[in-house]
Design a protein that fits this description.
The complex is a heterodimer of chains A (422) and B (159). With 422 residues, chain A is an alpha/beta fold. In chain A, 42% of the residues lie in helices and 11% in strands. The chains are: A alpha/beta (422), B alpha+beta (159). Chains A and B meet through β5, β8 and α13 of A and α2 and α5 of B.
Chain lengths: 422, 159
């Protein structure tokens, strides 16, 4: 089984410096890419069917293809979205701490493909170790001529900056991220215009997730057909999957796209911890719908998870066990979303705190039978199409599916006038 | 009236470095807030006015940015800031026990500072180390797989 993304990652030793990375084939993809035309690279990435690993799952090459390449745009930007803040998600930290040069190489190739001369890594403040390692790797890349002016004698120039955020979930939304980079409040922007045409400081901009960018060197080295052959299900490539919660061995694994939830939980994570039983899981971070026992054998790829009523999201799963109250679990999530709402549009600003308050009242034994209808009303009012960005609809995903799969637990809170778990 | 405070030459030099990287002066707002907070521990009204003046923006505009972000401190904080992850994986793995222990040990709740100014305790969204929950950070250091028994030893490292 091939594991291109993690083949050079081991936490038993320091991460590769530039020399180690080069010795193991590092920056060969960049040399190859610089000999191709930018359009050719975009076509290869589009043909590989690489989809954005930040959660949205949009074809990466297609996203790049919307950037104007007519020579009328002297300033363009490429941004690595390293603001990993989706609760339960910890994969990009591993990629950056494990092999920072892989991300930098992927960024240089991607920037070349859209002919951007300025790039940023938008890193969340909490990732101190990743920040130190990336800074060091960037310095090495500059010194070796992989960054800066006239890269490897090709005439191509690229500057790279590390920007550390000051903490706000919404910064992960790509247009909010652009506002944060411009020194503003991180409220999302109206689309269109899309960032590919008018992004950072009004210039064409591509924002890609860290894991997405880390795939680029391997696709350039091995070709789109190889990448497609890595997937087991409906999608191409490998994926960094993760499991947290009451399992025996929580962790991260690089697996073919499309492994089943059963393989992930039972084989990789060692099954449930002693004394705990599985009740459900959010397959890809806090803003995805619950999957339950009946979904154990579905393939964890974008299409199959969507068919089961959820989203692959970030591919890092949070397990709900039988010792944890589902209402308390969802209350924790809605507290997070209410706090992290940017407040720009009304359904999200008003609806999320209301949702949080209802769930808290249930936890305190003050829930009323009509509260279930109120919660259901919120899942519609805050659903897709009613808000400026995906935060509120995402917040409704675990709630609406909890109301469906764990309804009797909500009812018990109301009937017994207390949380049965406390 | 708010007393006029100015930025130190060192702060101005660091902010100038950030201004040089962006097309408009005010785009360095977040970096400038980070720089001044690094030097002074927090952003007072006086500091805010000084930064706003330097970036040629109104204090109100800069305050709207400063108050938006979780880690720009608009109130004084203790010498050490504890950020306890209260997100979902840490919830499942029992961060509430750690919180209870911290409250008992330090005599403060979220948002408060010990009377000796040693610790400020804040909740924090997912720290991205969910396979090692529960987790917390103190200043720039990450602690994982934290148990109630570890806390005394961890806290003793900070003065």
């Amino acid at each position: 089984m091939e594991t291109p993304l993690t083949q050079h990652i081991s936490f038993d030793r320091p991460c590769y410096n530039l020399r180690d990375y080069e010795k193991n084939g590092g920056y060969q993809a960049l040399r190859k890419a610089l000999s191709l035309s930018p359009e050719n690279i975009t076509n290869i990435v589009q043909a590989s069917d690489l989809k954005g690993r930040g959660g949205a799952g949009f074809n990466t090459g297609m996203k790049w293809s919307f950037v104007p390449m007519n020579g009328h745009h002297p300033v363009k930007y490429l941004i690595a979205n390293a603001d990993e803040m989706e609760p339960g998600t910890f994969k990009d930290r591993m990629l950056m701490e494990g092999n920072p040069h892989q991300l930098i190489e992927g960024m240089i190739i991607s920037a070349f493909a859209i002919q951007a001369n300025i790039s940023y890594i938008f890193l969340r403040w909490a990732y101190k170790k990743a920040g130190r390692l990336l800074k060091h790797a960037m310095d090495e890349a500059y010194a070796a001529g992989y960054l800066g002016k006239n890269i490897l004698g090709t005439g191509y120039n690229l500057e790279m900056y590390l920007h550390t955020g000051v903490g706000r979930y919404i910064c992960g939304e790509e247009t909010a991220l652009l506002n944060a980079l411009e020194g503003k409040r991180a409220t999302p922007r109206a689309k269109p215009p899309f960032p590919q045409v008018s992004g950072l400081f009004g210039k064409p901009t591509i924002v890609n997730n860290v894991e997405t960018l880390c795939n680029i060197p391997h696709i350039i080295n091995n070709g789109p057909e190889w990448f497609k052959s890595l997937g087991k299900g409906n999608d191409a490539g490998t994926k960094i999957y993760g499991v947290s919660g009451r399992v025996r061995k929580p962790g991260l694994w690089e697996l073919p796209m499309g492994v089943s939830m059963r393989e992930l939980i039972e084989d990789c994570a060692g099954g449930m911890a002693n004394g705990y039983a599985f009740r459900g899981a959010l397959p890809g971070g806090a803003s995805t719908d619950f999957l339950v026992q009946e979904h154990m054998d579905i393939k964890l790829d974008y299409k199959s998870v969507a068919a089961a009523g959820s989203r692959l999201g970030t591919g890092t799963m949070i397990v709900l066990d039988d010792h944890t109250c589902p209402v308390g679990f969802v209350h924790n999530l809605e507290h997070f979303f209410a706090q992290e709402s940017c407040g720009w549009c009304t359904p999200c600003r008003e609806g999320l705190p209301w949702t949080e308050k209802i769930l808290l009242s249930m936890e305190r034994g003050e829930g009323r039978p009509e509260d279930l209808q109120l919660l259901e009303m919120h899942t519609r009012y805050l659903g897709p199409g009613n808000t400026f960005c995906a935060l509120a609809p995402g917040a409704m995903e675990p709630l609406q599916s909890a109301l469906k799969y764990f309804r009797e637990d909500f009812e018990k809170h109301i009937d017994q006038k207390k949380c049965p778990w406390r | 009236m708010i007393a006029q405070e100015t930025l130190t030459p060192e702060e101005m030099e660091e902010i100038d470095h950030e201004i040089a990287l962006v097309p408009v002066r005010r785009a360095a707002a977040i970096e400038a807030l980070k720089i001044v907070q690094q030097h002074r521990g927090w952003i007072s009204d006086d500091s805010l006015h000084a930064i706003a003046g330097y970036l040629e923006m109104s204090p109100e505009e800069l305050d709207s940015v400063a108050t938006f972000y979780n880690l720009v401190f608009r109130k004084p904080v203790g010498r050490n800031v504890i950020l306890l992850c209260d997100s979902i994986s840490c919830y499942v793995m029992g961060y509430e026990k750690i919180y209870g222990q911290l409250r008992e040990r330090l005599g403060i709740s979220f948002g408060q500072t010990t009377s000796d100014g040693r610790f400020t305790l804040l909740p924090n969204a997912c720290l991205g180390t969910c396979d090692h929950a529960p987790a917390l950070m103190i200043n720039n250091e990450l602690f994982r797989d934290v148990t109630a028994n570890d806390l005394d030893e961890i806290l003793d490292r900070y003065h």
